[in-house]
Amino acid sequence: WRVMRGRTAGWIGTIAIGLAFVCAIGATASLLGHTESDRQLTSSLWTYASAAGLDIKLGILVDPLSAFMILVVSGVSTLIHLYSVAYLDSDRGYSRYFAYLNFFVFSMLLLVLAGNFVLLIVGWAFVGFASYALISFWYRRETATRAGMKAFVINVVGDIGLVLAAFLIFRELGSFDYGTVFAKAPEVFSTNQWSVTAICLLLLVGAFAKSAQLPLHTWLPDAMEGPTPVSSLIHAATMVTAGVYLIARTHALFVLAPTAADIAAFVGLATLLVAATIALVMTDLKRAIAYSTMSQIGYMVVGVSIGAYGAGMFHLMTHAFFKALLFMAAGSIIAAMANEQNIDRMSGFGRAMRFTSVTMLCGGLALAAFPLTSGFFSKDEILAYAGARGGMYITFTVLGYFGAFLTAIYTFRLIFRVLQGEPCAEARELIETGHVHHAHPFNPATGEEEDTDVGFPGPEHHIAESSAPMRVAMAVLAFLALVGGLVQVPGVDNVIANWLDPVFADSPLAAIHPSTEWSWIGLGIGGVISLAGIWVAHWLYIANPERPRALEQRLQGVHDFLFRKWYFDEAIDVLVVRPALAVGRFANRVFERFVVDGLVNGTEETVRGTSGVIRAVQNGFVRSYALLLIAGFAGLALYFLLSSS
Amino acid sequence: MINVLLWAPLAFGLVGLFLPRRAAGPWAVLGALVTLGVAVGMTIGFNQGDSGLQYVESTPWISGLGVDYSLGLDGLNLFLVLLTALLWTGGIAFAAFRDYERPKTFFLLMLMAETATLGSFLAQDLLLFVLFFDFMLVPFYFLFGAWGHDRTAEGGPTAWAATLKMIIYTLIGSLLMLVAAIATAIISADGGHITFSIQALQEQGLSLGSQRWIFWFFAAAFLVKMPAFLVHGWMPDAYRAAPLPVLAVFSGVLAKVGAYGFLRIVLPLFPEATIEYQEVVLVIALASILYGSVMAFTQTNVRLIAGYSSVAQLGFITAGIFALRADGSDGAVLQMVNHGLVVAPIFVIVAILFERTGSEDIREMGGMALRAPVLAALFLIVALATLAMPGSSNFVGEFYILNGLFQAKIVFAFIAISGVAMSAYYALRLYQGAMHNRKPEGLLSREIGWRDAVVLVPLVLCILGLALYPQLILKRTNPSVQQTVAKVTGGSAPQSKLAAQTEESGWTGYAPIGDR
After folding, report:
1. Short-list A263, A60, A250, CA closest to A168
2. What residues have CB less than 8 Å from A72, skipping those under 6 apart?
C-alpha cells in the first residue's frame, strides 16, 4: 500500500526542505554582500497576467524581512519533516502526507517571497488549501473533513479581504507591485485618509483569518483533527504567522493609517487574553496548545501593529521554536496514549517518557517566559516597547503582563497534569513492559470507529523515545527554545532587529527604543510574573489537586463560558451559517417553484388558452420552428420587395 | 482554412452515416480531432498584436438582402473556437467509448451541433449569426430528447418535456433576436443599401430610441442562453434530462455564446443603450451570482450543483463585460474559456461517479478517494479551479472581472465578491461529498479507467497549463477587447455621446486614477 518503499517518501520530502533551508542561508548570505540600504533583490520568472493596465508578473522579492522569514520557515519545517519521517511511519497515507506537507512549505515560502500583492494572494490561498488538505488528511473521519472545510472557508474570507485590498491599492496607486506601492503611498495618502484606512482594514481581514485572531479564529482549534506534526507546522513555521508577516510587510501603509494599526493592536490584545482564558480550561491537550498559539500570535500582532517590528518578528521566531517543540512532545504523548488527547486521562508520563517530558518542559518554560529562556526575552521586548511608546500603549504592557501570567498558569497546568502524578494505565504499561499501549482505533471526538484503511496510524505508534529522527528534531528545538533568545538581549546584542532595520527604516515608529534600564526592569517584572504563574499552577495542580475541581464547581458559569470557548462557534452558526442555509432552502422550495417556474407555466397556460395556432407550434415543434424560420425569411424578402419597388 | 474549421465536423458526421455502426464512434472522434487540429493551427498562426479580424472569409450570400457569408477570427472568439473544438473532442471521445443507441445518428447530431456552435462564434454577419444561433438548438433538441433521461420516477418531467421547456425559453429569445437583427439592419440602412455585416453596422450607428428596445431583444436571447437569474427556469429540468457527454459540451460552450453575443454584437452596435442599461444588467448579473451560489450549496443532485454554479459563473462573466472596462471584459473572455474547461470535466466526472454509485445524489456518494486516488486528484484539481482558487487561471479571470467591476462600480464589486466565498463552499462540498467521508454500502469504488482518463487528463492538463500561464489568452484577446470596449466608452478619448457620464455616475461610480 505504499508507492515508495519504507520511508523513502519521507526522506525525499525532508531533504527537499533541507535544501530549501540551505538556499535560504544562501539568499541571506547574498544579501549580506550588499550595503544595508541596498538589500533588496527582485526577480521575476515570467509575465503571468498583464493586460489592460494591470501588470502582474511572477515576481519575487528578497529583502531582510523575507530572508528572515524563509530562514525560520524552512529551518523549522525541516525539523518537523524529520520528526514526521518517523511519526507517520505506520500511516497508510505516508506519501500523500509528505506531498501535502512539502506543498504547504512551498506555499508559505511563496507567500513570504512574493514581490507583488497578486502573488502574495496566490501563496496565501495555497497555504489555505494545504492546511485544508492536511487537516482533513484522515478523510474518512467526518470531524476531520468538517474541520478542513471550516478552515478553508474562513481562509477564503481572508483571501477576499486581501483581494479587495489589492483592488483598492490598484485604484489608488495604480500598481500591485510592493516597491511601487510602498514608495508611492506616502505621496498619495494623507494620514488616516479613508482609503488607506480601508486598505489596511481589508488587509487585516486577511491577516486575522490566517493568524486566527478574533473573530475569525474558530478554525484553528478544530484544525487539531489533522496529524500532530501538521499542527506543529501550522502553528510554528507556516500559516498562522502569515498574518504577522503581512502586517510587517505592509507597515508602510499602516504607518499612514494609525487608526487601523491601533484596531489591529487591540484585536491582538483581545485575542491574546481571550485565548489565554480558554486555554486555562481546555481538557484536550492539542486544543489547549492551539489556544496558546492564538494567544502568542496576539502578542506578535500587537508588536508589529504598534511599531515593535523587530520584537514582533523576534517573538515569531522564538515561538516557532518552542511551539513546534510542544506539539512534537504532545504528539509523542498522544501516540503513547493511542491517540487519546484528553488530559483528564493522562498522568505520570514524566517517569514513563523521560526524553519527551524533558523536552516538553523546555518548551513549556520558554512558553511561560521562564527567565533566560527564549520566550522570556522576546515577549518582554514587545511589552517594553509598548511601555516606551507611552500614552494609551501602556495598556498593552499591563494587560500583556496579565496575559503572561495566564500563560504561565495554563502551560504548567498541562505539564503538571500530564507529566506528574500517579501514572495512568498507558504510562504504567510503558514503564513496566516498555511497550506502547495499543487500543482499538476510535475517534475520541465522536466515539465512532476509525477507518484504518485511510492512513489512520496502524498499530505501531511512534514515540520519541524509540525513534531517532523524532529525538533529533526535538533535541535541536529544545536547545533553540532555551537559548534562542540570547540573540537579542537588551544592552548586549540586537541581532534580529538590526538585520531587519533596513526594511523598517522608513517607519517613524522604528526610532522608538525602550532604554536598556527599562528593558531590564521589564524583564525583571516578566520573570517574577512567570514564576508566580508557575507557582499558582503548582499550588493548584500539585499541592492541592482537589482545588481545581472545587473551583470549577464554585465558578460553574465562568467555567462553562470558557469551556464553550466564549460561544464563538455558536454565534457564527446563528449569525452566518443558519441564515445562509435558510435562504438557500427558501430559494429552493418557494422561489424556484412558484416564481421561476410560475413565470413560465403562467405564460404557457395563457398561450395555450388563447391561441390554437401557438399550440400547434408547440406540438410539432421542430417542424413548425423550421417553418416559422422560413416564413420569417419569406416575410423579410417580401418586405424588401415591397419597399424597393 | 476557416471554412474547413467550420464545416469539417458536419462533413465528417454526414460521411459517418455510410459507415458501419461500430466505426461511427471512432470516425466521429477523428472528425473532432481534425477540427481541433485546424483550430490549434489557426491559433498558432494568429497574429497576436492585431485587434482586427483575421482569416476573414466573406462572400455575398443573399445579395438582395445584404446578407454575407462572412466569417472571421479575432481576440474575442479565438479561444472560444479552440474551446469548442477541444470540448467536443472530449465529449465525443467519452461517448465513443460507450454504447449509445443509434450511434450513427447520435454522432451526426453531435458533429452538427459543433458546426452550428463554431458558426455562431465565427459569424461576422448579423443574420448568419442568428441563423447559426438558432441552428444550434436543433441537434440539441434531439440529443436531449431522444438520448436523455426521463425523470418521471423522481417526480420530474420526461426527457422530451424537459427539452421542450428549454426550447420554448430559448426560442422566445431567438425570435426576439431575429426581429431585432432585421430591425437593426433596416433602421441603420435608413432607406439606403441594406447590410447585415457587423463591421459595417458598427459604423452606421442607430438612434438611442431604437437602440433601447433592440438592446433588450438581443439581451433576452443572450440572457436565456446563459442562463441568467429569472430566465433560468429551463435549466434544472434540461440539465437533469441531458445525456452527460452532451451536457458537458452544452454547459461548457453554449452558455458562452450568450456572453460572447454581448461582446460581439451588443456592445459595438448599441453603445449608448449599453451605457444606459449598464446598471440594470449588472443587477441581473449580481442576482445570478448570488442566487446561483445559494442554490448550488443547497442542491443534492450533482448535476444541479454544477448547473447552478454555472449560473453564478456566467453572472461573473456578464458583470465583467458590463463593467465596461477593458480589464473586466478581458477577464470575462478568459473566464469563459476557464469555465468551459472546468464545467465539462465536472460533467464527465459526474458520469464516472454515476457508473460507480448508480446515483446522482451527493448524499449517496462518498469515500471514493481511497480506491480511486487518481480520479480523486483529477477531481480535486477541477474543483479547486471551479472555486477560482488563486493560482488557477479561473482566479485570474475572476480577478480581472472583479477589478474591472471594482474600479467601475465599487458597490457591485463588494456584493459580487461574496459569491466567491460561497463558491468555495459548494465546490469543496461537491468534492468532499463524492470522495471523502465514509463509503456508503454498495458503492463500487474503483479507479478511473484508461478510456475515461484519455478524456479527462488532457482537459485537466489544459487547466494546469493555463494556471501557469494565463497570459497565453490575455495577450491575444486584449487588443480586440480594448477595441470593443472603446467603442462604448471611447477609451481615453470619448467618442460616444454618453461616455462622459460613465465617469460620474453617482455613488456607485468611480473617478479613474489620472483624472483626479
Report:
1. A250
2. A237, A241, A316, A317, A320
In the numeric block, the cell 504598534 is attached to A306
Q: According to the per-residue pLDDT averaged within each range, which of A359-363, B19-23, B482-486 is highest?
A: A359-363
Mean pLDDT score, A24-36:
86
Q: Could you write out the three-class secondary structure of B256-318?
A: HHHHHHHHHHHHHHCHHHHHHCHHHHHHHHHHHHHHHHHHHCCCCEHHHHHHHHHHHHHHHHH
Reply yes or no on whether the pLDDT at B337 is more than 90.
Answer: yes
In angstroms, what CA-CA distances link B317 with A104, B269, B338? 32, 20, 11
Distance from B377 to chain A by nearest Cα, in Å?
A: 11
In angstroms, the Cα distances linking B323 to B137, B172, B286, B395, B403 are 30, 27, 12, 17, 9
Report pLDDT for B60.
Answer: 84
**Pairing state of beta strands A57-62 and B67-73?**
unpaired
Residues of B in contact with A52 (CB under 8 A): 325-327, 330, 400, 478, 481-482
Position A638 confidence tier, pLDDT thresholds 50, 70, 90: low
> Backbone phi, then psi, for A348, in 5-degree steps?
70, 25
For the question of whether the overall pTM of this predicted structure is more than 0.95, the answer is no
Give exposure, A4-21, as e/b (b: 16+ Cβ within 10 Å): eeebebbbbbbebbbebb
Between B236 and B495, residue with greater pLDDT: B236
- Residues of chain A in contact with residue B298, where contact means CB-CB under 8 angstroms, are 581, 584-585, 587-588
Q: B78-96 and B471-489 helices cross at what angle (nearest 10)?
A: 130
Reference A96, options B389, B465, B435, B347; nearest CA is B435
What's the mean pLDDT in B17-46? 89
Q: Rounded distance, CA A618 to CA A602, Å?
A: 15
**Residue A615, pLDDT above cutoff 80:** no
ipTM score assigned to the predicted complex: 0.88
Kindly state the percentage of chain A with pLDDT values over 70. Answer: 88
Assess contact for A210 and A240: CB atoms under 8 A: yes
Please list every residue in chain A whose beta carbon sits closer than 8 Å to the beta carbon of residue B112: none
Q: Rg of chain A's alpha carbons, rounded to an integer? A: 29
Residues of A in contact with B421 (CB under 8 A): 153, 156-157, 160
The closest CB to that of B432, out of A145, A454, A636, belongs to: A145
Look at A585 and B298 and tell me if their CB atoms are within 8 Å: yes
The answer to whether the Cβ–Cβ distance between A599 and B230 falls below 8 Å is yes
Which of A28, A30, A165, A13 has its CA nearest to residue A82? Answer: A13
Contacts of B81 (CB under 8 A, 6+ apart): B5, B39, B42, B73, B118, B121, B122
CA gap A232, A229 in Å, rounded: 5
